[in-house]
Amino acid sequence: MGKKDDTSIENRVYLFESLASSYVSAATEELGSDDPAARERARRALAELAFVSCVVADTAHLSPEQVRDRVMGAPEPVDAPPEAVDDAGGNGGKKRNK
Fold first, then answer.
1. Is residue 98 assigned to a domain?
2. For the chain, which ranges sit under pLDDT 50?
3. Burial letters for 32-59: b for 16+ Cβ neighbours within 10 Å, e otherwise?
4. Among 13, 67, 32, 72, residue whose Cα is nearest residue 48
5. How far apart are CA 74 and CA 77, in angstroms?
6. Which of 22, 49, 57, 97 could form a disulfide with 12 if both were Cys (CB 3.0 to 4.6 A apart)?
């Protein structure tokens, strides 16, 4: 593993720590709730913050729009497939009259 991987991990930790700290401060009642559903929602929010932290840290080379798309779950763009090779000898799949 190279320096880049170490930096990415450090960035993930830093981002998550910062985001989670703010969230925990704002959601202390939900995290300590007697209602299991409220606690589960709070834990899910923390999991989403962890995911966002990883995506942002791992996509520093992308534009902000591309990072937003990744965070929102948009699939990565796929290059257009190459033109299909015609198995019929390049005549559009038509049979030749002999």
1. no
2. 1-3, 80, 84-87
3. eeeeeeeeeebeebbeebeebbbbbbbb
4. 72
5. 9
6. 57
Rg for the chain (alpha carbons), in Å? 24
**Sign of the torsion formed by the C-alpha atoms of 83, 87, 93 and 98:** positive
Q: Is residue 95 part of a domain?
A: no
Domain that holds residue 63: 3-71
Q: Hunting for tokens 């948009």 — which residue is that?
A: 74
**Quick check: is 38 in a domain?**
yes
> What tokens does 20 get?
């989670």
Angle at 24 between CA 71 and CA 60, to 5 degrees: 30
Helix (H) or strand (E) holding 9: helix 3-26
Residue 64 structure tokens: 């902000």
52 CA to centre of own chain: 7
User: pLDDT tens-digit profile of 66-90?
Assistant: 999 999 987 766 654 555 444 455 5
pLDDT of residue 4: 55
